[in-house]
């Protein structure tokens, strides 16, 4: 595992070789994944490497704010996006692959075989498990708020210039993963935020990116209306068994519940009725390690945030499984 200094040295070395850079954020791309990916693309450009951000999510599933950032970054910064097919057609052995905001093969659109013999760098703030790519060149720090915070720091220590748009995207990443600056904030995070504001980031533009779609918000509120509070100050919502929700809606429901006086929240709902897939999103204020709880159910995450999906089940059954694994031992 690298520390930040060695990550800087590694990036400096690896980007000094003349080759294509493929930046891979997690599937279900969010503000942190896109912000950090664009920041890395800006770094690659400084080294005169061509870089490509691999996004294979269906367009209708991409958050409108994230989609706006993608479109604007193509127009204003000349960022290249490619999908999985284009990647597989053009992939070369000597390229450099950088995973950002993710470290596991099951959370990106390529499997381990498709990245065989590739030079891989990981920059992330999530836990590792058996799906984590095997590479010496990894910087994974779960105590940092976001991949965007790490990349902001890299831009600074690699002395890469960037404009206010990039500063906004990175700030959006930090804003998302700190739940609007309410959790997982350190003095380092605030120093980075201050740096981004100096570079011209505009908090009102960032909060605009998070504006909600009323129909989707009503679905989230409907989910929340099912919340129950169990012992151990854990709130759980189980969605309507006949309804399908997006992963983002489930995540938002879990986020929303944290405003109450509870230690952790879990939101459960169908994300594919056809395939019987139920997703769970978990959030914590730090007393319960929800990443570990989600790991018990085949997912992952970190202290503050986690998720999993379970196949061939129903929300009610998934909740039963969840309640079995929430134990006082997850209190830290
Ligand atoms: Mn993140």
Number of helices: 12
- Largest beta-sheet details: 6 strands, parallel
* Number of structural domains: 2
Overall shape? globular
Low-confidence stretches: none
CATH architecture of the largest domain: Alpha-Beta Complex
The overall strand count is: 12
Cross-sheet strand order for the largest sheet: 3-2-1-4-5-6
CATH fold title of the largest domain: inorganic pyrophosphatase (n-terminal core)
| Average pLDDT for all residues | 94
Order of helices and strands: HEHEHEHEEEHHHHHEEHEEHEEH
Give the end-to-end Cα distance, rounded to a whole number of Å: 24 Å
Bound molecules: manganese (II) ion
Q: Would you identify the CATH H-level superfamily of the largest domain?
A: inorganic pyrophosphatase (n-terminal core)
The assigned structural class equals alpha/beta
Rg, please? Answer: 19 Å
State the gist of this model:
By secondary structure, the chain is α/β, with parallel strands linked by helices.
Compile the SSE list and pairings:
Blueprint: H1 4-16, E1 21-24, H2 31-46, E2 51-54, H3 64-77, E3 81-82, H4 84-90, E4 96-100, E5 119-124, E6 138-140, H5 147-157, H6 164-177, H7 187-198, H8 203-209, H9 214-224, E7 228-230, E8 234-238, H10 247-257, E9 264-272, E10 277-284, H11 290-296, E11 300-301, E12 305-310, H12 315-325
Parallel strand pairs: 1-2, 1-4, 2-3, 4-5, 5-6, 8-9
Antiparallel strand pairs: 7-8, 9-10, 10-12, 11-12
Helix pairs in contact: 2-3, 2-5, 2-6, 5-6, 6-7, 6-8, 9-10
Bound molecules: manganese (II) ion.
Manganese (II) ion (MN) binds at residues 32, 101, 125, 146-147, 177.
């Amino acid at each position: 595992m690298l520390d930040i200094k060695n990550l800087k040295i590694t990036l400096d070395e690896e980007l000094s070789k003349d080759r294509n850079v493929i930046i891979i954020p997690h599937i279900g791309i969010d503000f942190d994944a896109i912000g950090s990916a664009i920041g890395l693309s800006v770094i690659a450009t400084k080294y005169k490497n061509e870089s490509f951000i691999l996004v294979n999510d269906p367009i209708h599933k991409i958050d409108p704010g994230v989609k706006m950032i993608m479109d604007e970054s193509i127009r204003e910064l000349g960022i290249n996006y490619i999908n999985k097919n284009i990647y597989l057609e053009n992939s070369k052995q000597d390229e450099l692959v950088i995973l950002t905001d993710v470290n596991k093969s099951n959370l990106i659109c390529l499997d381990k075989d498709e990245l065989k013999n590739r030079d891989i760098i990981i920059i992330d703030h999530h836990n590792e498990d058996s799906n984590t790519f095997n590479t010496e060149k990894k910087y994974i720090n779960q105590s940092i708020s976001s991949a965007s915070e790490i990349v902001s720091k890299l831009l600074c220590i690699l002395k890469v210039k960037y404009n206010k748009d990039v500063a906004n995207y990175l700030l959006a990443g930090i804003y998302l993963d700190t739940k609007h600056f309410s959790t997982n904030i350190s003095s380092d995070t605030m120093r980075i935020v201050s740096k981004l504001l100096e570079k011209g980031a505009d908090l009102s533009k960032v909060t605009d990116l998070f504006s909600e779609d009323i129909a989707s918000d009503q679905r989230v509120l409907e989910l929340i209306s099912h919340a129950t509070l169990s012992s151990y100050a854990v709130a759980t919502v189980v969605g309507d068994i006949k309804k399908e929700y997006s992963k983002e809606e489930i995540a938002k429901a879990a986020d929303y519940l944290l405003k109450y006086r509870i230690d952790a929240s879990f939101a459960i709902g169908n994300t594919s009725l056809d395939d019987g897939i139920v997703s769970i999103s978990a959030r914590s204020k730090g007393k319960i390690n929800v990443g570990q709880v989600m790991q018990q159910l085949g997912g992952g995450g970190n202290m503050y945030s986690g998720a999993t999906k379970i196949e061939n089940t129903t929300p009610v059954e998934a909740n039963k499984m969840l309640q079995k694994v929430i134990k006082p031992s997850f209190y830290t």
